[in-house]
């Protein structure tokens, strides 16, 4: 439906892979990386929300989505997957490295926590330490991808503190949505009061995501030339349809309207979660696709020719 | 202490791309991989238009973002300021490529190596010996021809440039040609707003 393949897309002012000076798309972080980010934030968000509610099905699913899904897509993306372990080596300076440590803590201590819940194998004194380390790992996983993007000044559109915030908000939104679907599927939440609280949190998070999207676009529109190109791509050019209809419309406005005006049942909850999931996945993909590098050097700018 | 850098004289560059070819030859670069490119840029409005040629290369940034984001330690900086990539350590995550504001990182794809320059899957002896330095899937970039520099030679692009538009030397030596050109002709760095402190300068 949407044409979002970017390799060598040439647009006015864009140099692509040619020997011309102009804007260039970043092309190395593409669909597999976007999918890995999507899985990481979804899994960690679901894990955090479920941990706060002692909701075992959500905890296990969150661990699986991140541990299996994210890892798989990262390895698919990586040029030399056999050396993936080397990404652990520089947590002192690299967000990718820090994130990998986060995944190790999250999956490692999260799994121990699950074993403790199922078989009571964790010694009583260590339970809270395991719990805290697992949550801390999940917090790193749900935000580090945004930090990795915002850390780079190369792509002005990404170089904003809103990146980790959007990661966190989307992760938690996916978490609350999946918890509600799972509970309506018959997996019972320990305290029924949690159900309405999670429902309210879901509405608040959708509104927060909308504010975040607007702020991102506003920042890009008024940012450097590269960021302005990203804004044009997302709002007026060939990424506008998937972004405006997919991310904004289906991904946040429709779910909000359903939640506000239609009584919650399994079907509406499923539709809302499906819409949010689609919107979030498109968001991840399109933010990568709209990553634009400024012209390396323009004589008009530098030498005022 | 030595701190290598390069100066591009835009007035002298005629856009012949001899540097590009010399670099490909020196480094045995596979099809589609370039460590240096001379870009063309049109400016002005009809009838007052002009075309300028802009040689580009890894800027061996002082504050290299590609090094900061590299999770494996594959990217590192020598004492003389040359930013290196160790292909054996690179995991091909692409973080450096996304972090480099100058688009100077390239991934070596397996097909680029196996297809060969003629695209028929048969490698020439030149390619066979040259490609052994690349790890498929890893990222690579210009290293200022570090082996030539260590042997007291200029990088291949500088040695080849027929108009002397490329000058290589020690930025820390106030009497070197690069330092004098930067000082006398107001050398400017590319995208200074990115805070990478490039060691490549342009003069006009
Ligand atoms: S130009 Fe790019 S690849 Fe070269 S040192 Fe700077 S950031 Fe790294
Ligand atoms: S692709 Fe290689 S050199 Fe680049 S950041 Fe990843 S590990 Fe480092």
Largest interface between protein chains, with number of residues from each side:
A-B, 48 and 53 residues
Number of strands of chain B: 9
Text of the CATH class of chain A: Mainly Alpha
- Give helix % range of chain B: 10-25%
Summarize the structure.
The complex is a heterodimer of chains A (305) and B (204). With 305 residues, chain A is mostly helical.
Please tell me about this protein's structure:
The complex is a heterodimer of chains A (305) and B (204). Chain A has 305 residues and is mainly alpha-helical. Chain A has a single domain (28-291), classed as Formate dehydrogenase/DMSO reductase domain (Formate dehydrogenase/DMSO reductase fold, Up-down Bundle), CATH 1.20.1630. Chain A is built from ten helices and two strands, in the order βαααααααααβα. In chain A, strands 1-2 form a two-stranded antiparallel sheet. In chain A, α1 runs antiparallel to α4 and α6 (193-221) packs antiparallel against α8. The longest helix of chain A is centred in the C-terminal third of the chain and has 29 residues, at 193-221. With 204 residues, chain B is an alpha+beta fold. Chain B is 25% helix and 22% strand. Chain B has helices at 18-26, 65-69, 95-99, 110-115, 125-131, 146-150, 156-160, 177-184, and strands at 4-9, 36-45, 48-57, 75-77, 83-85, 106-107, 139-140, 166-170, 200-203. Chain B is globular, with a radius of gyration of 17 Å. The mean pLDDT of chain B is 95. At the A-B interface, α3 and α10 of A face β2, β3, α2 and α3 of B. The complex binds iron/sulfur cluster (2 copies). The site of one iron/sulfur cluster has 14 residues of chain B, from α2.
Question: Which features does this protein show?
Answer:
heterodimer; A: 305 residues; mainly alpha; Formate dehydrogenase/DMSO reductase fold; two-stranded antiparallel sheet; 10 helices; disordered N terminus; B: 204 residues; alpha+beta; Alpha-Beta Plaits; 3-stranded mixed β-sheet; 8 helices; globular; binds iron/sulfur cluster
């Amino acid at each position: 439906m949407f044409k979002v393949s970017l390799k060598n897309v040439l647009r006015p002012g864009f140099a692509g892979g040619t020997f011309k000076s102009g804007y260039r798309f970043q092309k190395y972080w593409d669909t597999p990386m976007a999918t890995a980010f999507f899985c990481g934030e979804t899994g960690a968000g679901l894990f955090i929300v479920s941990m706060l509610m002692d909701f075992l099905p959500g905890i296990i699913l969150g661990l699986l989505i991140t541990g299996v899904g994210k890892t798989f897509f990262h390895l698919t993306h990586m040029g030399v997957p056999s050396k993936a372990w080397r990404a652990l080596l520089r947590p002192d300076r690299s967000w990718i490295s820090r994130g990998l440590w986060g995944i190790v803590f999250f999956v490692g201590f999260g799994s121990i926590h699950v074993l403790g819940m199922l078989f009571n194998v964790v010694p009583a004194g260590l339970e809270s330490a395991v719990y805290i380390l697992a949550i801390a790992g999940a917090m790193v996983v749900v935000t580090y991808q945004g930090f990795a993007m915002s850390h780079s000044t190369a792509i002005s559109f990404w170089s904003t503190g809103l990146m980790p915030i959007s990661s966190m908000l989307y992760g938690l939104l996916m978490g609350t949505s999946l918890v509600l679907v799972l509970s309506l599927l018959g997996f019972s939440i320990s305290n029924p009061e949690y159900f309405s609280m999670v429902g309210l949190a879901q509405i608040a998070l959708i509104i927060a995501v909308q504010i975040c999207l607007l702020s991102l676009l506003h920042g890009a529109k008024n940012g450097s030339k590269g960021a302005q190109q990203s804004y044009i791509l997302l709002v007026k050019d060939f990424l506008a349809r998937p972004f405006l209809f997919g991310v904004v419309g289906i991904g946040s406005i429709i779910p909000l309207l359903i939640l506000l005006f239609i009584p919650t049942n399994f079907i509406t909850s499923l539709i809302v979660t499906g819409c949010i999931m689609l919107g979030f996945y498109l968001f991840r993909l399109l933010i990568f696709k709209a990553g634009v590098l400024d012209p390396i050097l323009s004589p008009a700018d530098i030498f005022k020719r | 202490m030595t701190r290598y850098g390069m100066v591009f004289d835009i007035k002298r560059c005629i856009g012949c791309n001899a540097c590009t070819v010399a670099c490909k030859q020196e480094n045995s670069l596979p099809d589609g991989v370039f460590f240096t490119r001379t870009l063309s840029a049109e400016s002005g409005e009809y009838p007052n238009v002009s075309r300028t040629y802009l040689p580009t290369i890894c800027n061996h940034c002082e504050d290299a973002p590609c090094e900061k984001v590299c999770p494996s330690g594959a990217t590192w900086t020598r004492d003389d300021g040359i930013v290196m990539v160790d292909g054996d350590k690179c995991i091909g995550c692409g973080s450096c490529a996304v972090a480099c504001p100058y688009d100077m990182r390239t991934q070596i794809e397996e097909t680029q190596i196996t297809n060969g320059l003629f695209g028929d899957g048969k490698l020439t002896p030149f390619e066979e010996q040259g490609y052994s330095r690349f790890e498929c899937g890893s990222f690579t970039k210009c290293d200022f021809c570090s082996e030539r520099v260590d042997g007291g030679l200029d990088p291949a692009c500088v040695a080849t440039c027929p108009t002397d538009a490329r000058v290589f030397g020690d930025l820390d030596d106030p009497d070197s040609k690069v330092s004098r050109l930067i000082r006398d002709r107001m050398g400017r760095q590319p995208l200074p707003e990115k805070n990478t402190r490039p060691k490549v300068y342009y003069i006009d």
